[in-house]
Amino acid sequence: FKQFILEHKGSKFSSYAAAHYVKSILSYLKHDEAITQFEALLAEKLDDETSYELLAALSNCYVRINQSEKAIAKLNESGKLKISKEKKNDLSMQKAVIYIHDLQDIQTGSSLIDDALSGKDIDEALLELAAAEIDYTNSFSSALKKSQRADQSVTEISNKYELFGNYPNPFNPSTTIKFSIPSVGNGHVHSSNTVLKVFDILGREVAVLVNAPMSAGEHEVTFKGSGLPSGVYIYTLKVNEFSQSRKMLLLK
User: Between vectors from CA 9 to CA 5 and to CA 12, what angle results, nearest 5°?
Assistant: First the structure.
């Protein structure tokens, strides 16, 4: 496969050969040894599609030997190549997974998921992976908040707004969104207006679920996405200066 790649640079079969070359190398070499082989072949100034296959393999090897920053660097190199939109989406998802699971950078990972799902005609496999990652990030955020609340007094907890993860997620066609409103003084009605809206990934408003004063306590509302296309949607709770958003995935 290596000989074919070197003798047929730019051939439409070169990237195909590269994919099989990667599998062959990884079947009998350790990851650090495979890295040396892939780097040497990349130095031969190959076409972009072939380089993409090798850079993706390098990134995977660096992840396996716990060098996540180098893995990200290789994926960033891939992003500079002239490759299809589908492959660019895959790159964003690969980086998202590394940021979320290896670097524990939920914010950057979530932003990369948004990038991967911002186009049209998203591959179903990509949507399913995104659904799993969104579910993980929502669960991670909830666990972190629970941990933080455990160190607070009961009084402080009762004076907190909170927007919870929707369930189910992903969903089709409807899902439940829960949020909590704190009590104010000795009363049970919160006088400030409570607004809960849903937006698509481009920031366009698609639904207003709540727009009224709400009583203190936990509330649930149902969002129906029957007339909407598959994709990531953002739901945002706003009360006075408080604002919190979460992501959900409609998967048809």
Answer: 90
Amino acid of residue 116: A
Alpha helices (H) along the chain: 2-7, 14-28, 31-42, 48-64, 68-79, 85-97, 106-116, 124-150, 154-158
Report the C-alpha gap between 127 and 90 in whole angstroms: 11
Helix axes 85-97, 48-64, angle to 10 degrees: 10
Global confidence as pTM? 0.58
d(CA 197, CA 212): 12
> Residue 42: beta bridge partners?
none
Q: What is the pLDDT of residues 29-63, one digit of tens each?
A: 999 999 999 999 999 989 999 999 999 999 999 99
- According to DSSP, the residues that pair with 177 across neighbouring strands are 221
Contacts of 99 (CB under 8 A, 6+ apart): 72, 105, 106, 108, 109, 112
Q: How far apart are CA 61 and CA 30, in angstroms?
A: 9
Cβ–Cβ < 8 Å for 156, 145: no
Instruction: Write the DSSP assignment of 12-77 as a string of letters.
Output: TTHHHHHHHHHHHHHHHS-HHHHHHHHHHHHTT---HHHHHHHHHHHHHHHHHTT-HHHHHHHHHH
Whether residue 210 is predicted with pLDDT greater than 60 in this model: the reply is: yes
| Cα separation, 184 vs 161, whole angstroms | 12
Quick: pLDDT tens for 113-137.
877 777 655 666 666 666 667 766 6
223 close to 177: Cβ distance less than 8 angstroms: yes
